[in-house]
Specification:
The protein has two helices and no strands. The protein has 64 residues and is mainly alpha-helical.
Length: 64
């Protein structure tokens, strides 16, 4: 009984570690894919659209 519990705990910890590693790597890749904006362009964007409302949120779901 304890070996089954131990195996399940190891499996859970491995799953969690892989999930965290993939999440960090995907965040890095998404950051690389974002277009670069010059300071002048950023000022123009902020002038046109004001500041964000912070109400909208985006979540990403991934299935393996």
């Amino acid at each position: 009984m304890t070996t089954t519990t131990l195996k399940n705990e190891i499996r859970r910890l491995a799953h969690k570690s892989v999930h965290e590693a993939l999440e960090a790597e995907m965040a890095r890749i998404r950051g690389m894919l974002l277009p670069l904006v010059s300071k002048k362009e950023q000022r123009e964007i902020e002038k046109l659209y004001k500041k964000p409302s912070h109400r909208a949120e985006r979540s990403i779901r991934t299935r393996f």
